[in-house]
């Protein structure tokens, strides 16, 4: 029984090791901006961590959460152990567990993804409607729906305050849609009031607190709905009719679609120094120790009886 | 070594002093025996030696008590730990740790004795007391005699100059008591320790004593050679009483001396008829019949298929060393204790099948710790409760109590009664239910000679009423005076069963002093006295 | 040394505690099931090889049962309250709608493999720590541990010892009195019956405690030691501040997310202050110990093996954190590298190198 279990375990290990996974799951999403208002564009900006900014599209016609967008676009993410995927601590294995993040007040800080990351080094979460400025999200990724045709942004905030949180350095403008006005709608209401699922740490005054809006088709100019009443959370401010628009796309940094990124699993294995034999040895050691325990117990029982 | 100078002691509010103007000096290496009735101040006197009286017990002490030149007034008892070793009546209650070795070391740890010295002293003490094989045993698993020896060892390791013992053998069976006493004698002989010991059962201890202190109970003290003091004492061991009857002088204190003196009496008595005893009634039907009683505690068998029948108007004594199954058998017969096999028949029913209120009307029992049955504030309340519990006419209990022990103040708290009075009260409470059979478990424990004599009369009163009485006891002399039949148990089995004279006279372990001196047919002084009187006539 | 090394003796209880706490600390740093399983196996082997026959030693299996219970509960909780973390749904239970005030709590619903696995890892970590503590309990004689306490805590130790011996006596007392009540036909109910039992027991307990106090007093308990009130107060403050510091320091050290300046410096400062306090308190006590447990080479080996496990785990968490906390995002068998594996195996040393325990002499049946 035990042997069969181990064999099965081994098989799974081998398949897990052998499966050709890429950093970007190319089977999901598409590189670059979404070409149309169907789907949402996800921007990941590593900022001070270094590396190219990645832009990918989650071409989904249905609605979904920020998490759906991030995963659907093919990004490899990790949530903290305590809260799971409700709190993203790594995107594309950055900051990796072996990389020292020069966070203020923390010597030799490494992101272990066990508890919530410190306010001086975390992934800040943004969103924007097409042609709208980036908005720091009040909600956690599982609690807000992405804006169809809009943007989801992930920007690493290192040693920044609530006021200086860096926006993604890609303008939230779909190619070919330049110059249109920002038709902001209210940020979708969260599905729960659980503060755990709110984005933390929360800035006091998010930059560009005005909500962006999608250019949903048809781009009807809806009257601004009455602000939603929520007891627990600050309300999103009502839309300013004279809304600012997105930054000039010409100022955006260079980006890729993540096609060249290295396989995260491979990187992980290399970084950890994991050995494919170690689990086997560990399993064998457990079996051996158990057998030794049984044998010693028998010997001692006999000795006592004698 | 110990000096008491005009020592008097009062408890607060007591009308008269427990000790009044006691002056005495005890020299180094003496074994001093202290005797007197319960409540005569023995424990108080012992307590003054290390300052427990009055530092711990309260009350007022006048005069000075000094040990090795240090007055007990100036320091608390703990500062005398290295001088005076105190051993109480119940060794288990005084144990601080839980294994033998730790207990032996405890006092030395308090004194700050160096570890190597401690180790050596523990080994020496283990050997001295013959308990080396018990060293790692938990204290609770030891027998009474072993516990008492450990308690003595625990104070000996501190190398005290004085050893004070309060009734060290009162809870022990004869063999265990002999062990303890032999140990004490050896300490006096070999180490020159001064020993001050209170004891009820003088017959065992008197031969060892150098000096004898008798407390008559009025606060004064009689001090002198054992033989001299005993001659003038109302209470005395059988050997002394025999000596008085025979007119020997000086009084013999050991069996050996007495045998030498008793040569002519032995001859005279051997010529005459053996003492008459009522023939054991064998024909009348048994009041209680027990067959195949088995009591087990887990894997331990306490009682192994014992048969027993009790006849009305007779006293059965149950003997055997501690742990031989006496108590278990009594509890099983009564029906309140566990019983894994066998049947009991009283009036055609088994008490175990009845509710306890009805079972006690068939078989009454006084347990070893009789005080457990008492829970009210006064004797009168206890008696009233007993009448209610037994549906007896109000006043029954009080009447019985007056028959057994006249003159007990009804307003007294049961806990303030003497051991003998408390026993009488419990006996009266149990008798209120009028059971035809009465079981007494170790009733003689802690009783002095007077109380034992009173208990003997009470038992005679019960048999006169036609009850069957069982007495479980270690006290051979008591058995010889009250019992018609003796059953000896060992490891839960009956090893001998027969008329008292056959069982006691024939065995060196159970023989009374009189039997040892005169011969196996003669058990008590009164028998000898009666025979001698006849001859004189 | 060599010839006496393997003679049976009871090891210093603190050595076992250090060893077990080392393993527990190591377990607290990882959720890797390979490592946790290995730690449990190592602890079990050492317990089976080196435990005595005392009752507390036999309680080890209870800890194993408790560990199993913890893991089961953790997994069950994940299934009952929101187990949809992750994408591999393995079970779809009907979700029970809850009223608005219970927002944020979810009952049943979809259960994902990731969330069940997360519960399992988390539970396994706690369970392993419990097993480590159980191992310490089974291997170290608690009474000897009391004896090994610093002199300043002597009174506490005595109180505990006395209390431990009082409980069986009290139980015996209850049994005896209840039996005696039956002799008086005491089948009554209510307050009166209770009183019939409680009064004699209390009287008995009071008598016993008086006898014990007299015995302790006449045997020199509390004999030496006179300290001024100020000295006492100073000692107390030192000890409390020191212990607080130790608590904060230990927490900060074990919890990776607390600022580092709260970790080692506070821990060390707390230790120093506490030791000063203990020294001050111990100085006014003039007592000695009978056969004190000595700290010999074997004790060092045992304690060091436990510390080594913890150190290796701390070390690898610097270079190799990935494997200590396997990712739950992509379902795969947890990876493992050599250093932590070898490190945990060091913990098995006592099973080979500690002297065997003394056989307990049995009381006659």
Automatic annotation (TrEMBL), chain A:
Keywords: Membrane, Signal, Transmembrane, Transmembrane helix. Residues 160-247 are annotated as: Disordered. Residues 1-23 form the signal peptide. The chain crosses the membrane at residues 277-297. Residues 190-202 have a biased composition (Low complexity). The keyword Transmembrane helix applies. This is ABC transporter substrate-binding protein.
Automatic annotation (TrEMBL), chain B:
Residues 2-242, 288-516 form the ABC transporter domain. GO terms for molecular function: ATP binding; ATP hydrolysis activity; ATPase-coupled transmembrane transporter activity. Coiled coil: none annotated. Keywords: ATP-binding, Nucleotide-binding, Transport. PROSITE patterns: ABC_TRANSPORTER_1, ABC_TRANSPORTER_2. Residues 266-285 are annotated as: Disordered. Residues 270-285 have a biased composition (Low complexity). It holds the Pfam family ABC_tran. One of its GO terms (cellular component) is ATP-binding cassette (ABC) transporter complex. InterPro entries: AAA+_ATPase, ABC_transporter-like_ATP-bd, ABC_transporter-like_CS, ABC_transpr_CbiO/EcfA_su, ECF_ABC_transporter_ATP-bd, P-loop_NTPase. The keyword DNA damage does not apply. Belongs to the ABC transporter superfamily. This is Energy-coupling factor transport system ATP-binding protein. It comes from Asanoa ishikariensis.
From TrEMBL, chain C:
InterPro entries: ABC/ECF_trnsptr_transmembrane. The keyword Membrane applies. This is Energy-coupling factor transport system permease protein. The chain crosses the membrane at residues 33-50, 62-81, 233-254, 260-282, 294-315, 335-354. It comes from Asanoa ishikariensis. GO terms for cellular component: plasma membrane. PANTHER family: COBALT TRANSPORT PROTEIN (PTHR33514:SF15), PROTEIN ABCI12, CHLOROPLASTIC (PTHR33514). It is found in: Membrane. It comes from the Bacteria. The keyword Iron-sulfur does not apply. Keywords: Membrane, Transmembrane, Transmembrane helix. Its main location: membrane. It is a multi-pass membrane protein.
């Amino acid at each position: 029984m035990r042997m069969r279990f181990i064999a099965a375990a081994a098989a799974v290990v081998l398949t897990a090791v052998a499966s050709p996974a890429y950093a970007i799951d190319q089977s999901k999403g598409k590189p670059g901006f979404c070409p149309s208002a169907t789907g949402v564009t996800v921007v990941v900006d590593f900022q001070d961590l270094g590396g190219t900014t990645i832009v990918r599209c989650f071409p989904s016609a249905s609605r979904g959460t920020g998490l759906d967008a991030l995963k659907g676009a093919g990004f490899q993410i990790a949530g903290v152990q305590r809260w799971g995927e409700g709190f993203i601590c790594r995107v594309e294995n950055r900051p990796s567990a072996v990389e020292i993040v020069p966070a203020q007040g923390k010597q030799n800080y490494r992101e272990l993804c066990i508890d919530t990351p410190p306010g001086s080094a975390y992934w800040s979460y943004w969103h924007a409607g097409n042609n709208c400025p980036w908005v720091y999200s009040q909600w956690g990724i599982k609690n807000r729906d992405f804006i169809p045709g809009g943007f989801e942004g992930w920007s690493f905030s290192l040693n920044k305050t609530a006021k200086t949180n860096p926006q993604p350095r890609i303008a939230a403008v779909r190619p070919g849609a330049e110059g249109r006005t920002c038709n902001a709608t209210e940020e979708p209401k969260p599905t729960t009031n659980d503060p755990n699922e709110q984005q933390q740490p929360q800035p006091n005054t998010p930059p560009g607190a005005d909500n962006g809006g999608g250019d949903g088709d048809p781009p009807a100019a809806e009257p601004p709905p009455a602000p939603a009443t929520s007891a627990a959370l600050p309300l999103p401010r009502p839309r300013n009719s004279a809304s600012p628009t997105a930054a000039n796309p010409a100022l955006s940094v260079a980006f890729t679609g993540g096609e060249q990124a290295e396989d995260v699993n491979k990187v992980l294995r290399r970084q950890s120094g994991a050995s494919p034999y170690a689990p086997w040895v560990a399993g064998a050691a457990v079996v051996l120790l158990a057998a030794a325990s049984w044998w010693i117990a028998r010997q001692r029982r006999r000795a006592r009886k004698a | 070594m110990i000096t008491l100078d005009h020592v008097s002691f009062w408890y607060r509010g007591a009308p008269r002093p427990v000790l009044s103007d006691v002056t005495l000096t005890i020299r180094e290496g003496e074994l001093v025996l202290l005797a007197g009735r319960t409540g005569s101040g023995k424990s108080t006197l012992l307590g003054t030696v290390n300052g427990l009286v009055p530092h711990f017990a309260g009350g007022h002490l006048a005069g000075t008590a000094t040990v090795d030149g240090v007055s007990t007034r100036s320091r608390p008892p703990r500062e005398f730990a290295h001088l005076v070793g105190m051993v109480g009546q119940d060794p288990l209650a005084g144990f601080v740790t839980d294994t033998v070795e730790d207990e032996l070391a405890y006092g030395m740890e308090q004194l700050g004795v160096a570890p190597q010295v401690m180790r050596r002293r523990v080994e020496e003490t283990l050997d001295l007391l013959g308990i080396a094989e018990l060293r790692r045993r938990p204290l609770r698993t030891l027998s009474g005699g072993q516990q008492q020896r450990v308690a003595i060892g625990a104070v000996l390791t501190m190398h005290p100059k004085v050893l004070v013992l309060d009734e060290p053998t009162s809870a022990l069976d004869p063999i265990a008591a002999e062990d303890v006493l032999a140990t004490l004698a050896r300490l006096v002989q070999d180490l020159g320790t001064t020993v001050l010991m209170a004891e009820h059962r003088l017959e065992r201890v008197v031969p060892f004593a150098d000096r004898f202190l008798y407390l008559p109970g009025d606060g004064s003290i009689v001090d002198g050679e054992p033989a001299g003091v005993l001659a003038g004492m109302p209470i005395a061991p059988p050997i002394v009483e025999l000596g008085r009857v025979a007119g020997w002088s000086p009084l013999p204190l050991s069996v050996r001396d007495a045998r030498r003196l008793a040569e002519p009496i032995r001859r005279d008595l051997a010529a005459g008829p053996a003492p008459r005893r009522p023939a054991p009634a064998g024909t009348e039907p048994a009041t209680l019949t027990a067959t195949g009683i088995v009591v087990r505690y887990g894997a331990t068998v306490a009682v192994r298929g014992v048969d027993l029948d009790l006849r009305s108007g007779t006293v059965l004594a149950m003997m055997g060393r501690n742990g031989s199954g006496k108590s278990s058998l009594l509890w099983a017969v009564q029906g309140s204790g566990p019983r894994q096999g066998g049947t009991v028949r009283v009036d055609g029913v088994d008490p175990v099948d009845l509710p306890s209120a009805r079972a006690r009307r068939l078989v009454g029992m006084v347990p070893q710790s009789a005080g457990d049955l008492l829970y009210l504030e006064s004797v009168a309340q206890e008696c009233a409760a007993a009448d209610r519990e037994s549906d007896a006419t109000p006043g029954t209990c009080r009447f019985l109590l007056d028959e057994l022990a006249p003159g007990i103040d009804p307003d007294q708290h049961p806990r303030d009664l003497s051991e003998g009075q408390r026993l009488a009260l419990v006996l009266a409470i149990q008798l209120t239910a009028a059971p035809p059979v009465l079981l007494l478990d170790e009733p003689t424990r802690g009783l002095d000679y007077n109380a034992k004599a009173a208990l003997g009369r009470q038992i005679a009163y019960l048999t006169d009423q036609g009850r069957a009485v069982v007495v479980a006891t270690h006290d051979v002399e008591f058995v010889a005076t009250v019992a018609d039949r003796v059953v000896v148990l060992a490891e839960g089995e009956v090893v001998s069963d027969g008329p008292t004279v056959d069982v006691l006279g024939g065995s060196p372990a159970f023989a009374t002093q009189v039997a040892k001196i005169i011969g196996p047919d003669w058990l008590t002084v009164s028998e000898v006295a009666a025979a001698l009187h006849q001859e004189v006539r | 040394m060599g010839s006496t090394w393997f003679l049976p003796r009871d090891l210093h209880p603190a050595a076992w505690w250090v060893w077990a706490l080392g393993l527990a600390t190591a377990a607290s740093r990882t959720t890797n099931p390979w490592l946790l399983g290995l730690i449990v196996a190592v602890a079990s082997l050492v317990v089976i090889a080196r435990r005595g026959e005392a009752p507390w030693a036999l309680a080890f299996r209870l800890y194993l049962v408790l560990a199993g219970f913890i893991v089961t509960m953790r997994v069950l909780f994940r299934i009952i309250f929101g187990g949809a973390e992750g994408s591999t749904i393995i079970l779809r239970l009907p979700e029970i709608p809850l009223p608005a005030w219970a927002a944020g709590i979810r009952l049943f619903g979809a259960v994902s493999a990731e969330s069940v696995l997360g519960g399992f890892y988390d539970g396994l970590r706690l369970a392993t720590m419990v097993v480590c503590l159980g191992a310490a309990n089974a291997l170290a004689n608690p009474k000897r541990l009391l004896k090994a306490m610093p002199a300043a805590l002597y009174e506490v130790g005595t109180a505990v010892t006395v209390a431990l011996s009082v409980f069986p006596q009290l139980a015996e007392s209850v049994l005896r009195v209840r039996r005696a009540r039956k002799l008086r036909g005491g089948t009554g109910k209510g307050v009166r019956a209770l009183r019939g039992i409680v009064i004699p027991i209390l009287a008995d307990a009071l008598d016993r405690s008086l006898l014990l106090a007299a015995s302790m007093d006449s045997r020199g308990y509390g004999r030496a030691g006179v300290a001024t009130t100020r000295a006492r107060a100073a000692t107390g403050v030192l000890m409390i501040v020191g212990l607080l510091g130790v608590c904060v320091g230990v927490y900060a050290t074990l919890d990776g997310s607390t600022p580092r300046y709260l970790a080692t410096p506070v821990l060390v400062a707390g230790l120093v202050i506490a030791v000063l306090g203990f020294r001050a308190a111990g100085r006014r006590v003039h007592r000695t110990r009978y056969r004190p447990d000595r700290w010999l080479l074997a004790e060092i080996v045992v304690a060091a093996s436990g510390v080594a496990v913890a150190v290796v785990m701390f070390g690898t968490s610097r270079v190799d954190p990935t494997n200590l906390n396997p990712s739950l995002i992509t379902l795969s068998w947890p990876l493992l590298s050599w250093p932590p594996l070898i490190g945990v195996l060091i913990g098995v040393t006592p099973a080979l190198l500690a002297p065997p325990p003394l056989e307990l002499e049995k009381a006659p049946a």
